[in-house]
Design brief:
four-stranded antiparallel β-sheet, Malonyl-Coenzyme A Acyl Carrier Protein, domain 2
């Protein structure tokens, strides 16, 4: 069995999608559709920068989605591959869950772009710049990372945000607490911890205003049942009911991204082939979680052509 998986924030870089757009009209169509939906030349920002503008959450989120959907669209149109025929499940890391839903036909491309633009703005606005932070805790499982977060909290919000793989967990919360957690991590048995260059403390209770904004936005959106089930970040379980999917997307804003558990659940369900579209980060997390899994990262035209031949 096979899952198509889609990357989250951090996969953005200046130049993303440019070579693919030059090589395929189908990629250009995706980027133009996103530009039109947002009323913004996002594709130009992706190709040429400036980097500080691309790194803004409200730009990075739709950009990462657009790049991944462009890869999928080229695979489908030029490679003759149908997601519904070749994938048993889809999943995405944080914003990648929206990409997965778009890929599986639950959301149209323009709606997905607008939702992610709003999500990025709402997440940034939820906490004043400088008041929140995130840190990667390396060499610690989720229980140890949560113990570190609890010890560092001292009355502030500090909790596990992303359980990425057995050796990498991300904590999130008030800046003072997260900064206390960095030296504590080593003292409490982790290999080390380092602050992440993010603009807000994602996936923690401080994001509640953003969750409310997404609940209002999603209530207005027409969502179809996905062509294949989507593994939800907050439950690490497959879901196909649009009503349930919307509720889980709201919960996801403040909830933990249970990526390690999602990979293990897919593995236990029989998924042994993981294809990452539009990035090269998740494949490594999959291999650290399920070492016997087959992983493929698909970013370039050469990657797409090789995958199309192998599927």
């Amino acid at each position: 069995m096979r899952a198509f998986i889609f990357p989250g924030q951090g996969s953005q870089s200046v130049g993303m999608g440019a070579a693919l757009a030059a090589a395929s009209p189908h990629a250009r169509e995706v980027f133009q559709e996103v530009d039109d939906a947002l009323g913004q030349a996002l594709s130009r920002l992706m190709a040429d920068g400036p980097e500080d503008q691309l790194m803004l959450t409200e730009n990075a989120q739709p950009a990462i989605m657009a790049n991944a959907i462009a890869v999928l669209r080229v695979l489908e149109r030029d490679g003759g591959i149908s997601l519904a025929d070749k994938a048993d499940y889809v999943a995405g890391h944080s914003l990648g869950e929206y990409t997965a839903l778009c890929a599986a036909g639950a959301l149209d491309l323009g709606t997905t772009a607008r939702l992610l633009k709003l999500r990025g703005r709402a997440m940034q606005a939820a906490v004043p710049v400088g008041e929140g932070a995130m840190a990667a805790v390396l060499g610690a499982d989720r229980d140890k990372a949560q113990a570190i977060a609890d010890a560092a909290a001292q009355g502030d919000v500090c909790t596990v945000a992303n359980d990425n793989d057995p050796s990498q967990v991300v904590i999130s919360g008030a800046r003072a607490a997260v900064e206390r957690a960095v030296p504590l991590a080593k003292e409490m048995g982790a290999k080390r911890a380092l602050l992440l260059p993010v603009s807000a403390p994602f996936h923690c209770p401080l994001m509640q205003p953003a969750a409310e904004a997404m609940e209002a936005a999603l209530a207005e959106v027409a969502m179809r049942a996905p062509l294949v089930p989507v593994y939800a970040n907050v439950t690490a379980a497959p879901v196909a009911d649009p009503v349930v999917i919307k509720a889980l997307l709201v919960e996801q804003v403040t909830g933990m991204v249970r990526w390690r558990e999602s990979v293990m659940a897919m593995w236990d369900a029989g998924v042994h082939d993981f294809v990452e579209l539009g990035g090269k980060v998740l494949a490594g997390m999959v291999k650290r979680t399920a070492p016997d899994a087959t992983t493929t990262s698909v970013v370039t035209m050469d990657d797409i052509e090789a995958l199309a031949k192998g599927l």
